């Protein structure tokens, strides 16, 4: 974790200042802890800060990840992980931790046999980057960053990406550019102070929209911007479609939460979601630019 981003993060329990205890590393802490006066402790493992409210619960669905990082950890980190491992409850493995091929969902590599199809995916991310780069911003946050393509390509002086998947964030850090950082954090407990611009790409249809926007709003400066992109593919617990919101409904919710909509016209940006080698889903995503005015 870059030491320079300490001024941007806070404790998710009390919103207090975090102090860094670096065991390995210098300007980029490879292993250590973030401490708060409220006694909250967040580990930094393999350069990845894990800022979640319950580390035992987090690793309950990531037992293989825990085993992998435990082997190469220092004695103090092993002691910390052993303590929390006692409270781990057996649950199903998080799909984004178990299958490394799912990284390809977020990547823009064009394979020879389907160049045209995958170029659609490249265009999707480039469209978002181009939209963000219109703004003159000093700092930027991407929620649900995957492997970090957007964070690495925006023109902001500082850019941070978060994702719940440790494997995604570790991969993103492997290829990160200067003044870029990636953190494990929860959308509903964001450990950040306010940013000039925040983006949330293809996430809101997975959760309660009101709750998502309320959480995101806390990390945006007044007169700052939110870039929201989504196919509005809302589904119930069994996977059946739910026609909850459309482009008008989402824009009205944003207005209720104090945002001014900068683009009223619905967008249709093609996004190709790779399921496996022979299976893809083609969505058309809307893109909303919203300014926080109250």
CATH fold naming of the largest domain: Rossmann fold
**Named CATH architecture of the largest domain:** 3-Layer(aba) Sandwich
Shape: globular
Number of strands: 12
Question: Nearest-angstrom radius of gyration?
Answer: 19 Å
Could you state the CATH homologous superfamily of the largest domain?
Vaccinia Virus protein VP39
How much of the residues is beta strand, in percent?
25-35%
**Helical proportion, percent range:** 25-40%
Termini gap: 32 Å
- Sheet with most strands: 12 strands, mixed
Secondary-structure class = alpha/beta
Mean pLDDT: 89
Give the tally of structural domains: 2
Number of helices: 9
Query: Segments where pLDDT lies below 50 for 5+ residues?
Result: 108-118
Q: Using the coordinates above, name the CATH class of the largest domain.
A: Alpha Beta
Report on the structure:
- With 294 residues, the chain is an alpha/beta fold.
- It has two domains: 3-93, no CATH class; 110-292, 3-Layer(aba) Sandwich (Rossmann fold).
- It contains nine helices and twelve strands.
- It has helices spanning 55-60, 63-71, 75-85, 95-98, 115-133, 149-153, 166-174, 209-217, 247-256; strands at residues 19-25, 29-35, 41-45, 48-51, 139-143, 158-163, 180-185, 195-201, 220-230, 259-261, 269-276, 279-292.
- Strands 1, 2, 3, 4, 5, 6, 7, 8, 9, 10, 11 and 12 form a twelve-stranded mixed β-sheet that branches.
- Helix 6 (149-153) links the parallel strand 5 (139-143) and strand 6.
- The longest helix has 19 residues, at 115-133.
């Amino acid at each position: 974790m870059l030491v320079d981003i300490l001024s941007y993060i806070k404790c998710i329990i009390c919103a207090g200042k975090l102090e860094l205890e670096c065991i390995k590393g210098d300007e980029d802490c490879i292993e250590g802890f973030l401490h708060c006066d409220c006694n909250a402790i967040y580990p930094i493992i393999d350069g990845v800060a894990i800022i979640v409210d319950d580390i035992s619960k987090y690793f309950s669905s990531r037992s293989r990840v825990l085993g992998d990082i435990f082997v190469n950890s220092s004695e103090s980190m092993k002691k910390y992980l052993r303590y929390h491992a006692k409270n781990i409850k057996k649950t199903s493995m998080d799909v984004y931790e178990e299958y490394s091929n799912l990284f390809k969902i977020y990547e823009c590599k064009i394979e020879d046999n389907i160049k045209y199809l995958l170029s659609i995916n490249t265009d999707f991310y480039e469209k978002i980057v181009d939209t963000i780069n219109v703004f003159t911003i000093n700092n930027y946050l991407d929620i649900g960053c995957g492997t970090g393509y957007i964070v690495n390509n925006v023109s902001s002086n500082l850019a941070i990406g978060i994702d719940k998947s440790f494997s995604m964030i570790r991969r993103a850090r492997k290829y990160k550019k200067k003044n870029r950082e990636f953190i494990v954090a929860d959308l509903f407990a964001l450990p950040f102070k306010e940013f000039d611009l925040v983006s949330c790409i293809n996430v809101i249809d997975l959760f309660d929209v009101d709750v998502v926007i309320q959480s995101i709003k806390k990390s945006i400066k007044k007169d700052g911007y939110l870039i929201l992109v989504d196919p509005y593919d809302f589904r119930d617990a069994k996977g059946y479609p739910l026609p909850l919101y459309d482009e008008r409904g989402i824009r009205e919710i944003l207005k209720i939460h104090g945002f001014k909509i900068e683009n009223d016209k619905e967008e249709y940006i093609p996004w190709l979601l790779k399921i496996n080698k022979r299976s893809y889903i083609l969505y058309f995503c809307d893109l909303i630019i919203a300014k926080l005015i109250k």
